[in-house]
Amino acid sequence: MKLRFLAIVALAFVSTLAQAQSKPEDMIRMRQGGMNLLSRNVSALNAMSKGDVPYNKDVAMQKAEFVNMLASEIFAAGFGPGSDKGLPTRAKPSIWTEGDSFKAGQEKLLAALKKVQAGAGDLAALKTAMGDVGGTCKGCHDNYRDSSYH
Which CATH number fits domain 2-144: 1.20.140.10, 3.50.30.10, 1.20.120.10, 3.40.50.1010? Predict the structure, then answer.
């Protein structure tokens, strides 16, 4: 129940900022906060899939649903025009200059997260799906995230 509430609050936050896209700073803040939430929830699913924490079917299914909704919102609203400047960010300029390639990476991640959601109810399926997510995240981060940012 607590996870569901947090998911609703987080999505309301993301949706509100997404609608207030008039300022690049708002998009950057939304993107950074959303990516932080996404990372924490994907990491929790990954820990379950590896056996680092006990697998809990209900929690895995809730987190998988949440990361799908969150990723969709982040990609729909977090990388809009002008959001490459305005606040310190890890996003490389190539996101905006290589838009088609970046968009393809987003679609690949969204497809991988759909597999996580479909497999979250079974530990073996979750393990397989999380492997795809890790590789997809790494590929995009290697190309589009500035690792020197602190």
Answer: 1.20.120.10
Angle, CA of 35, 7 and 82, to the nearest 5°: 35
Question: What's the rounded Cα separation, in Å, for the pair 52 and 97?
Answer: 39
pLDDT tens per residue across span 116-128: 999 999 999 999 9
Q: What is the pLDDT of residues 28-81, one digit of tens each?
A: 999 999 999 999 999 999 999 999 999 999 999 999 999 999 999 999 999 998
* Domain map (residue ranges) of the chain: 2-144
